[in-house]
């Protein structure tokens, strides 16, 4: 956890002003660099406090205006996901909270820590600074505003008075930063933040640390090590072990030493270099039935049970900060041993447990040969599918993925709202690829890319999204934010003019049904779409429509050059045929 929890080692100097001013200064003191905001009447004391801070020079989080709450939270998600710091978001009372829930759910399922906040309708009808003065102040009030979002966040609270400010903020940040990390929610009534600040001493840095994760249990590790040591065909399945960037090297060393192949099923963070000899791609289905021991690490859905299952005698070890995913109502994957702990801690404990029995080359060498054969087969199949895709018209997403891979800088951060095929791309370092949340609340990718750019201003950033995902992202708000905050990124829209995932799901359920034979099934075709490239151009960016496979590489080069050399956002509207993974 690298969040600074304080900037100096003394108590903060006391100043005149409001709770709003003290709150902003406290956030900055606790290492919150950015406050993503979508404002309303509840913001008045905060806006005044920002002006006062500008005059006094008190450090406060930089305000980042976003014209939709889904965008504000997606930007915060992207920023937190890349930086591992905790950003804050503030939205307008109940209605703003309603608008941010989808993006908050994405962050929650991916363990991204965010301090989500919202105003409250003023509590009083008159008599206090901040009392109701607009007709909306009655209808916007709810009996339980936080109830809307309570299932998604780790903790929620309403600030009641000036005196508890430090405890509340420090507790919120410590809970958000404790693994498994996640968003927390704090509501801030207008009279409370408009009140005079308290003169209660505020320790700096915070005295409320995040809790360290549990250490892996020695007996469980020993049992898992025995299962892996005996296996002829062991397999690791992960989605998110790489959320701790240090795992990228640790998993590489572990997999290599003990010759255990790794499949990354629907990864949100990559956990292994593409070129690693134990990397067996992204599809567990073809390997699952061959496996006799499976180590699932940080993977909520290691395979789809209705489509494929491991052999009945295959041992399954589930590892993670919350290996049973207790926040998911149903999850019935087999689990012979469950180990709670960080991926890094568990890999290190398993290394010690396996070192005795498994450095035996007679066990490891045959595995290594098996994995090499599997890897060769996967790479041959990928090449065949690229060749088949190469000259298709309209463009094939496989070919688009390959061209993106060839065009991108080796250090480019790629945000994938699921249309990019990572099996046709190379990522050799941690934190270069981020996939959309397993909650799949569409509209995340473009905002997350802006947040990633904020976290790593010197890295090129690209968002690859479907036309559906792009429209869910509030494009006008996205392009406005990119220009306003000087966050030039490249958006590649794979435009198949449909909600392909909806069609694929219908065909899968009713392969012989009428809808499968229809040219116009309901709720699938998007018909005539806007010229997306012009939406980007309207915000001062560069836009191009690409219809021909042969012209895509040059179009990518042009767009990448505009983003890099002119510091302007760019959008390629790539007209694709059906395809996709969801
Ligand atoms: C907020 C939200 N609403 C609806 C969905 C259901 N949904 C899943 S994929 C999808 C279509 C996405 O379209 P597009 O981005 O064009 O990709 P394609 O499926 O065509 O490959 C929809 C509507 C969702 N995941 N999230």
Description:
- This protein is an alpha/beta fold and 582 residues long.
- The chain has helices at residues 19-29, 44-56, 69-83, 93-109, 136-139, 165-177, 190-194, 218-230, 247-258, 285-288, 343-358, 361-389, 397-407, 445-455, 467-472, 475-484, 500-509, 514-517, 532-538, 552-565, and strands spanning 34-37, 62-65, 88-91, 115-120, 156-158, 184-189, 234-238, 262-264, 293-297, 315-320, 337-340, 413-417, 433-435, 461-466, 490-495, 542-546, 570-575.
- α1 packs across α2 (44-56).
- Thiamine diphosphate (TPP) binds next to α15 and α17.
The total strand number stands at 17
Average pLDDT reading: 95
Shape: globular
C-alpha termini separation: 33 Å
Strand order of the largest sheet: 2-1-3-4-6-5
Heteromolecules bound: thiamine diphosphate
Largest sheet: 6 strands, parallel
Helix count equals 20
- Classify the helix fraction into a percent range: 25-40%
Give the DSSP E fraction (strand runs of 2 or more residues).
5-15%
Q: What structural class results from the helix and strand content?
A: alpha/beta
User: What's the gyration radius in Å?
Assistant: 25 Å
The stretches of 5 or more residues where confidence is low (pLDDT under 50) are 1-14
